[in-house]
């Protein structure tokens, strides 16, 4: 089924001869952002967008003949500097990343509860944020998304937290001053409990430290936090207790030397509360 669907993607950018603006995809994306579009329509469009972003190309399978059709902006794809090859559907959506993010931003701000995005919207956001390049939109979305992660008495399902943190990691790589989000990330180290999202939290911190390579105190602080959350490479969900213990000892040394700033300090405090709640052995480790 997926194979047949991906063959049809090209029909979205098939246009009238000599009229490249006369194709379906731009008009569909404008409809998504329309205030008059009913939920059933936006839901169908989001389902289409999710498939464009997630379905892989099938090697050796020719697409349905659809000439003339809009060509892929290879220069824009190259500027993304992605580690993996971008699938055809995502390439088609590149010109519409801004409008997709604007739609998701409006969904977050329009909701009285600032809610929860739907499963499809979360999936789309986690994927399309990887293609984002606008610092202003990225900053606005981060300011809306980070409070969502720490809201509520109960932690959201692992898939929801994973999608949100994936989006945060992608967006934070686009803002000019990523270190300003450290304090907003701190409470998540005390509330996020699932293994994969906690690994993503460490990856987000490491991404920030790489962007701030002239701040030696921040880099060493991030290394401490990553050590406090180390996982055994031999076992997927098994903590690396040796590295964690060494990191706790180094925290004690760094505190005495006054080398831990307030932002990293806040993260460490929240991390300690998390361990106290889950394990209950922080204080003895600090006295070793």
Automatic annotation (TrEMBL):
U3 small nucleolar RNA-associated protein 20 N-terminal domain residues: 9-277
Superkingdom, natural source: Eukaryota
Residue runs in coiled coils: none
Cellular component GO terms, alphabetical: 90S preribosome; small-subunit processome
Matches recorded under Pfam families: UTP20_N (PF07539)
Stated name of the protein: (California timema) hypothetical protein
Native source organism of the sequence: Timema californicum
